[in-house]
Amino acid sequence: RGAPPDLRRGYFPGGISDPFSLEMLDFLTAISAKRPMEASATEGVLDLATAFTVLESATANQPVSVSNVLDGSVARYQEEINDHYGI
Length: 87
Known about the structure:
About 65% of the residues lie in helices and about 0% in strands. It is built from five helices and no strands. The protein has helices at about 5-10, 20-35, 40-60, 65-70, 75-85. It is elongated.
């Protein structure tokens, strides 16, 4: 809120503040400008894996590494979800 106007316009073009709308704007702009999005799919997967690592660690009551979640070697929390959806 206290950022200079130029910085606010850069992060919130057109005054858009809704995260989903900002992501869609970045997606459409990337297509029209033929450039990558600000956040790559790889970055998104790593972000999700980090969040799931916290859940897996809490379920196992022991440290879990992000690489264990990514390779599927630790999935106790995820197994309940998979079972529910028949995966």
